[in-house]
Amino acid sequence: MTDSFRLERDGHVATLTLSRPEKRNAMDAAFWEDFPDAVDALSEEGSCRALVIASEGPHFSSGIDLGMFQNVQDDELGAAKGMDSYRFIKRMQRTFTSLEQARMPVIAAVQGGCIGAGVDLVTACCIRFCTEDTYFSVYEAVMGLTADVGTFPRILNLLPEGIVRELSYTGRKMMADEALRLGFVNRVLPDHDAVNQAAQELAAEIATRAPMAVHGTKEIITYSRDHTTDEALDRIALWNGSNLQPSELMAAMVAKQTGQPGQFANLPPRRKVDGRD
Amino acid sequence: MTDSFRLERDGHVATLTLSRPEKRNAMDAAFWEDFPDAVDALSEEGSCRALVIASEGPHFSSGIDLGMFQNVQDDELGAAKGMDSYRFIKRMQRTFTSLEQARMPVIAAVQGGCIGAGVDLVTACCIRFCTEDTYFSVYEAVMGLTADVGTFPRILNLLPEGIVRELSYTGRKMMADEALRLGFVNRVLPDHDAVNQAAQELAAEIATRAPMAVHGTKEIITYSRDHTTDEALDRIALWNGSNLQPSELMAAMVAKQTGQPGQFANLPPRRKVDGRD
Amino acid sequence: MTDSFRLERDGHVATLTLSRPEKRNAMDAAFWEDFPDAVDALSEEGSCRALVIASEGPHFSSGIDLGMFQNVQDDELGAAKGMDSYRFIKRMQRTFTSLEQARMPVIAAVQGGCIGAGVDLVTACCIRFCTEDTYFSVYEAVMGLTADVGTFPRILNLLPEGIVRELSYTGRKMMADEALRLGFVNRVLPDHDAVNQAAQELAAEIATRAPMAVHGTKEIITYSRDHTTDEALDRIALWNGSNLQPSELMAAMVAKQTGQPGQFANLPPRRKVDGRD
Amino acid sequence: MTDSFRLERDGHVATLTLSRPEKRNAMDAAFWEDFPDAVDALSEEGSCRALVIASEGPHFSSGIDLGMFQNVQDDELGAAKGMDSYRFIKRMQRTFTSLEQARMPVIAAVQGGCIGAGVDLVTACCIRFCTEDTYFSVYEAVMGLTADVGTFPRILNLLPEGIVRELSYTGRKMMADEALRLGFVNRVLPDHDAVNQAAQELAAEIATRAPMAVHGTKEIITYSRDHTTDEALDRIALWNGSNLQPSELMAAMVAKQTGQPGQFANLPPRRKVDGRD
Amino acid sequence: MTDSFRLERDGHVATLTLSRPEKRNAMDAAFWEDFPDAVDALSEEGSCRALVIASEGPHFSSGIDLGMFQNVQDDELGAAKGMDSYRFIKRMQRTFTSLEQARMPVIAAVQGGCIGAGVDLVTACCIRFCTEDTYFSVYEAVMGLTADVGTFPRILNLLPEGIVRELSYTGRKMMADEALRLGFVNRVLPDHDAVNQAAQELAAEIATRAPMAVHGTKEIITYSRDHTTDEALDRIALWNGSNLQPSELMAAMVAKQTGQPGQFANLPPRRKVDGRD
Amino acid sequence: MTDSFRLERDGHVATLTLSRPEKRNAMDAAFWEDFPDAVDALSEEGSCRALVIASEGPHFSSGIDLGMFQNVQDDELGAAKGMDSYRFIKRMQRTFTSLEQARMPVIAAVQGGCIGAGVDLVTACCIRFCTEDTYFSVYEAVMGLTADVGTFPRILNLLPEGIVRELSYTGRKMMADEALRLGFVNRVLPDHDAVNQAAQELAAEIATRAPMAVHGTKEIITYSRDHTTDEALDRIALWNGSNLQPSELMAAMVAKQTGQPGQFANLPPRRKVDGRD
């Protein structure tokens, strides 16, 4: 089992923490396989209502592990096996797409440097909190690369296009205050402890909300982003025609009136057609 | 006839004012049918060149009327009639889509709380002015609901996606200053009178512009939002190939040179094929 | 040959300067044909790695030359030749689309007024720098026109939709500070000299990056803007499966370690099928 | 009230019959307004499960009434009011789009000539039966027109593109046997009586099927035609997640086992939000 | 392990045979999970160049197993768990989508009845051969269902839309000769042995072709079906820019000149990022 | 100037004839550049109303010239210059896309073998006539190639998908009778002279139709093929709002009443913005 991250559960909240601070949380080969498996398992199981992505040490992540990259270069790219590279990159994209497809909201708690694939990771999260000393760097072009595991399709919904282009051509650091001003991050906290605590509190708050309503909200925002207004309106109507849960409405109303956390059923876990696990 | 809003005309400017301040302008059943009919009539008639949406009392709107919602829950949803709910929600979506499809620009003048369906309404407007005490709350998830009458497809063009997600999962209030900073509202005014006056002045200014040019501009922005760059470029060329009016150009030039309001023909009113009204 | 702009080359950086300050750099008939030809030639030749668009005099551009417009009005539009107008507008759109399709990044250095077609031009650039006295005005509706050479499809990715609508219905000036706050411009510089220098420095920096990586980055951002997340992810994987250049990676690594500019091959020039120039 | 068609009901089957044989069922101005109103009413009411479109006399329809067309030419087109024409044509398109959007299947029973707008009409139907003496003619180009009320978007799903182009450029008659060979019509019957009877029998058979299942089938086929495979798969799953009716399944099973017509509930009628009719 | 089908390999050709003739090859719960796993494994492994889907007994398949369906009805649908049903149906869709996504061509060999989910299965195959006694029945509407595991999105590319609608509303049997006339099946063979032999021969022939070229062809046809002409042209160019294999061209040329089977490398097998199997 | 084809004009009809029968009309390097230039010139000039593509000798075309292909293999592909290949293939695609984008209809007159790029060519034509001895072969996979200059995006609208897949995986010859049965060709003529004469007669007939109406028809069919029904309906309305020509209607009516060819104005020729040729 990988030591590149660890999983913690606290009731309906889960936390995945990058745990190689001595490597500035560089993402090694095992990370790319194990991380999405962990996210998928949390999503499919049904009781996780909010996920925090955090990391140890002074920097969130320096991106892809250079050692791993060396291999790719020598072997696949050097031999010009376009098809193999294509499929390999798609496999790597799965790592962060898992965050977007997970049924529960995902909150990134960022400190220090968030570089290269680190940006790919946080753009696939729903919400970004960061420390005052955070900087984001779309560093791939400086390396002679075109970023390919998720930054570009997603970041255009998080920053104005002209800012995206400047950051991406140059690798320049976007500091926390600029990120806040433009809405790329939701909040800036003083330090690492504060950002972790704020992320946990937000996750805990979301975990008190009706899970079907929150899941539907996440899903519809993702769908709306990629479809026309008319198509999104139609899908929302069909979704709610199918999924509006009177029992959730009731529980939410009780929760609001009593000030107690709502008593909600979990999301239905994944079922195989033949009933096997 | 409904008492949930009233219509006023002043030359080429129309104002629809939500008029149930004692209910914080909650939208009752009659509102959902009568409001879009009023908007459509203004659009089709041809002489209205700008529309202001305002409201009475300290709050713009608390959203959907809870009484009406109770009925939906008991009857349609309790009986799990998915199809009926789907069609019912689509009927409700029509209420705010009418604002987007109207040929004239629509300006929202917002004060105090703008909650739930109130946000759906103002995101379907072209321009938002608000008071310093305004707050916006995408409140549906707190109620155990996924918002479905228009917020999500439209708000993603008005705010960065990460902000949208946070607001939508939590129902947190976005205050006027944050809304201004991120470009969600166009201007913040000191109080209710000031915001109403500013909205009227802007409407009056727009009403002095060439109506075909303004209508084309509204239409093309809406089209561009939902299509690729290439498709939008092509449509603009075809639209102007069809609709450029030398008489409007002349009138606009005269208006500019003389400093007098332009003398423009109205938009062509709706014609039925058989000439009946 | 036109005198409406001039071309300068400095190593891998090219600069196109609007050069009719006595006409506030209004775009005359020859400009619309010669400008895109110049941009295309730079793009196809292969050694240009960054392009700056600058202008002489106190204003960036007052937009389309009114004399040219007069002719269009009398002849084509007056005779209601919709088809001819459609094709003519598409021909004019080509002028700015050339900037978007060029393989190298394009930086606009703006001062004073940037009006009408001037806005169409700068929205087709990757990055916008401006002076403190700059203002942008989507002026077409004031002229009785619907803007049609590129502003609307592109500006919606640069500014929130509500701001776009207000600017476009009214022609109101957006000043440099508002443009910076909302991310429409990347930097505001004190004066004309400073903005030109900053643009040249950024161009020079980009010109030190791996050309294939930068070209791929420009291309993928443009593609992502107009496609769904899934489609963009797939295209990036296929693009890199085809175009990742180990030699570029190596050269970039050497450049980084030595602090010297990278030694990169130029982009492949355009080849005709039959080998003719 | 119009005399251009008449409506008959027989249980769950409705028939709309074009009834101006002395004018070869040319479509006059009143037809374009009254016909879609009649179709919409049948669709919204909920008990109609199949609709037949038939006609009196030796020819199905000669298309648009020339008298009506004369007016359009003189008034709207002569004055080059592009916007008015655009909206007028869209109003006319509604006439046949109503057939496609109706919740029940629509069967066309065709005899003799089916020309111009007659082809627009039958391409918006689900199923086409015709007599041996039927011919179809996309006649607009012969008239100096580009067909605009629905033929082109729909006929490309009914005939190979090369056949569509030949028919559309030339107006050549496609006879019944060619139409059958290429799958444009479902069956060819000997004469007018036979085609009407066959259409009624098919309508009666469809009316014995579960209405929700048939409506869902019609809707999904229409959706699939205009969306990618992935999008259509997703929508079908969501639709059935919402709309699968165990009571329909049971009733269908009983019907199959007993050989008796199924006892199915009607589709839910249209509800206004405020409960008014 | 399931007994609902069996796998045989013969060099580069694989055959999956439905093997419950006593149940008319009804698809039981285990089938829906095991079948796509088997197809995926063949696709990912890299040496399989053509796949035949065959079946035992007089009928190809009666579709979904009714016993399995009974459970779905009582449990999920009766409790109106829309979300669970939605996810369950998507899980079932995976079964046939695996055929479309497999890298090698898939040939269906059909005899006797091919009903309900049997049609879903064969429409996801590339090529259909059948016996003279074959009939296809889109039977879901007769059962009170809207078909949801893949027929509608795919069959519209295999049959004219009007034929699809008739078959789908009525469940009428389409016999082999009609299927051949309209191009739904590629060949009609006299009997079960003949159709199996013909399918094997075609598979063997395809297995002699260059695997990358055939895989690219399958992929591009699928892509073209779901995208515009311009997008498909661009993707083909990018695909071939990446994947054209000079060694395959050479081997194909040698094969053609010598009349011997080409000596081609297998497709690259799936690689995990961390090198694990 | 190339000798690979020649151009002939007869009034409003033009004919491009492949003229290297000794090479079975293989397409050499010069062909790929000169042919689209010739088509574009005919389209832009405005008086050509129908174009016939014919060829000399017993075979229509054996496709791409093998000599030319040899060079591509050694140079571009061997060096794995993905980007260069991508751009080169796009340049070659232009050759046949010119036929689709030309304003006048294009008719292919085919005899004998039509192989590889020959199929790419004829699928980009509007209408296909062929001789009894014609066969079509999508031959690329046999060569170890994925066809990339236009066949796949276009042929899916001309043949059922299953037929396309079989032809493309195997290279099997589709004979004239199968092509006619499935609607791939419009007519089969006895021999080379007959097919040329029939093509000329059809071209002459189309040349008597109103040019704007025919151009609009070609354009709308192409647009409809690549867009949803709703989008195509909207574009047709806007197109006709712009382009309906009362003078064409009148001339068409006179032509019909008198039996004389209509007296129509030519299409507007291409205009540069600055009036230069």
Automatic annotation (TrEMBL), chains A, B, C, D, E, F:
UniProtKB keywords: Fatty acid metabolism, Isomerase, Lipid metabolism
Protein name as annotated: Enoyl-CoA hydratase
Family to which the UniProt record says this protein belongs: Belongs to the enoyl-CoA hydratase/isomerase family.
Source organism, top-level taxon: Bacteria
MF term (GO), any: delta(3,5)-delta(2,4)-dienoyl-CoA isomerase activity
GO BP: any one term: fatty acid beta-oxidation
InterPro entries xrefs: ClpP/crotonase-like_dom_sf, Ech1-like, Enoyl-CoA_hydra/iso, Enoyl-CoA_hydra_C
Organism: Parvularcula mediterranea
Pathway(s): Lipid metabolism; fatty acid beta-oxidation
Pfam families: ECH_1
CDD domains in alphabetical order: crotonase-like (cd06558)
PANTHER family linked: DELTA(3,5)-DELTA(2,4)-DIENOYL-COA ISOMERASE, MITOCHONDRIAL (PTHR43149:SF1), ENOYL-COA HYDRATASE (PTHR43149)
